[in-house]
Amino acid sequence: METRSSLSRSLHTNRGLEKLEPYEGKLSCTVLRGEEGSNALDLPDRPSDLEQRDGRGVRAGNEIAKHFAGNNVDVIIYAVEKSLDSYKFNLLHCKQTFISQLKSGALGARTIDEGAMDEKSGMNFSEYMALLSGNTDLLDKAKLEKKIASLEGERKSFNKGKRDSEFKLEAKTGELRNNTAVIEAMTEDWNRFLSVVKTDKEGNRLNAVRVDGVSSSDEKVIGKRLQEIARNATTGGLYNPVGELYGFPIKVVSERMLKEGLEFTDNRFVVEGNYKYTYNNGHLAMADPVAAARNFLNALEKIPSTIDQYRAKNKVLEKEVPQLQEIAGKVWKKEDELKQLKSELAALDRKIQLELAPPTPEVAEKENDGQEVKPDTEGVRNVPSQPTEEAPLIRSPANDRSPSGNFIADHVVIGRPGFNVRDECKPKGIKM
Fold it and tell me: Where is the composition biased (Basic and acidic residues) (predicted)?
């Protein structure tokens, strides 16, 4: 009995191809010394099968391709153009590309566009159905809808960015206005302070603080009284006056605070003008009476540095506000294009609806070489079939079609021998 290996050797002496599968339509080949290419009549279901079908022709050791074909192998797949064969091939190609990217770690760079049409991603299903139906209006409609959806998304993003800019513009304009008001009020307080402050021979400002109930002008005595007020005062959240400095009232406020789960009263001092000014957040130096007495003079001397901080903020805001105004005042420039596309889509949709509408019962008469042919646009009528000796006429079951049309029904005709639909009013046509 001849073995498999001996059979292969004997076949090699006669031909270079060997049929492996015992059924038709599944041709493949075993490469012994090499081949120049391969041909396939169908498409497999898995990408791995499509790659495996290339066989050993695309692998190392193909001497024929190396020496006589420029080290190239032609892999030919037969498919019908503009059919589901090409759709299936593109689907397999996309699957294989996805698997390769997944294995190589390049999946992060993959982009998916369901509506794209190119050699890499192919077409989407609706575009294939439009081509297969032979009605390019459906494809034009799909393209218009895609453009309109893209423009509407762009307009939505533009409007969202514009609203955000308007909100930011409103907030920053209000902040700029408030900062300007604060600068003006603090400048007024500072000028008022400079007009009444007294200095010594060296130019140092004198601390002319006065506290209610204290007649002495000694800073140490005044500081002790202020420390006593800081320990014992309870104002219930109200600002109570306790003295003044160059006409600016000095006030104390008691605030309830929580620290480590315990509630206590925190007394804070302010010197009041157009705004309330504090030094050390309003807390007195409890260990030094002189420093406690100078707290309010230090608070007023901080006014220029506070004004400089607000002016620095305004410089930044003055640069941002014009930019936001320019963005908020922009108008989307593609509004006319979107309206034009929508009008084109509406016109195309009306055209498609008219084409897909059920046909009216009309009979068109044409004369061709003296013969009169009346096509039956109403479809096959429900008339009992009678056997006849003549060849059957080809009938088109138009009444079985869906309103949107049927590609197969338009291109495939079915006839049964021995049966004919009789129409007494219709003259005989050409025999087929």
Answer: 363-379
Tell me the C-alpha to C-alpha distance, in Å, between residue 379 and each of 176, 194, 327, 354, 365. 78, 105, 63, 19, 17
Which positions ≥6 away from 151 have C-beta within 8 Å? 334, 337, 338, 341
Cβ-based neighbour number of residue 260 at 10 Å:
5
d(Cα 6, Cα 180) in Å, to the nearest integer?
101
> Are residues 17 and 48 in contact, defined by beta-carbon separation less than 8 angstroms?
no
Give the whole-angstrom CA distance, residue 354 versus residue 168.
51
pLDDT for 15: 41
The amino acid present at 362, given as its one-letter code, is E
Instruction: State pLDDT tens for residues 409-425.
Output: 444 334 444 444 444 44
Is this prediction's pTM over 0.85? no
CA gap 235, 219 in Å, rounded: 25
Could you tell me what percentage of the chain is helix, strand and coil, using 3-state DSSP and rounding each to the nearest 5?
Answer: 50, 15, 40
CA distance 411 to 83: 13
Separation CA 31–CA 56 (nearest Å): 6
> What SS3 state is found at 244?
strand
What is the C-alpha radius of gyration for the chain, rounded to an integer number of angstroms?
Answer: 47
- Beta-bridge mates of residue 38: 75
